[in-house]
Amino acid sequence: AAAAKTLPLATAVIITGTLDVLPMLVANGTCQAAVESKIGLAAVKFNTQQFLPGLLDRSPLAYTVRDDDKQWASLVHWVVNGLLIAEMHNITQANVGSLNAATLALEAQSVLGYATGMANAFQTGFPAPIPANFVARAVSTVGNYGELYQRHLESIAPRAGSENALFTD
């Protein structure tokens, strides 16, 4: 916010409704500055760009699903939470297949499918049964939340000190 004070005063606000036109508006001089999430701006292809220091918004990254499929939304919710729980318990893509379930906290045992009950909540109405170890399979395939974040987002929106950091950090 302090860095923005050094910019010349804007004379007009342009609301585009989409980021697709932003590179053209910047290139032709119509737009000299844009406000958007770092993830959103990083997705736009500019010839040059500079992210100013500081934050104007503290919204965490979140997943989105269609609102007419509550079962799918529930499954996505539990996969994301399971990836976070895996990270909290230092369960990674590299070690998830070799863990000793007896040494894990009950929360980790439950979400990884070693304790009964977790997957039962997802069985009703799904076209195919959801395996009890569905979160363990997700971690095995893509890693825990921290591994995913590091691979895809860390260079754009550093996680440390943000809403996307673990609450234990």
Protein model, in words:
This protein has helices at 22-27, 38-43, 70-88, 106-112, 134-142, 145-152. It is mainly α. Helix 3 (70-88) crosses helix 5 (134-142). The radius of gyration is 21 Å and the shape is elongated. The two termini are 25 Å apart. The model is unreliable at 1-5 (pLDDT under 50).
Structural class: mainly alpha
Based on CA inertia axes, which overall geometry fits?
elongated
Q: How much of the sequence is in beta strands?
A: under 5%
How much helical structure, as a percent, in the residues? 25-40%
Specify the biggest β-sheet.
none
Say how many strands there are.
0
What's the helix-strand series? HHHHHH
Q: What is the first-to-last residue Cα distance?
A: 25 Å
Mean pLDDT: 77
Provide tags for this entry.
single chain; about 170 residues; mainly alpha; 6 helices; about 0% strand; elongated; disordered N terminus
Provide a concise account of the structure shown.
The protein contains six helices and no strands.
Summarize the helices and strands and which ones pair or pack.
Blueprint: H1 22-27, H2 38-43, H3 70-88, H4 106-112, H5 134-142, H6 145-152
Helix pairs in contact: 3-5
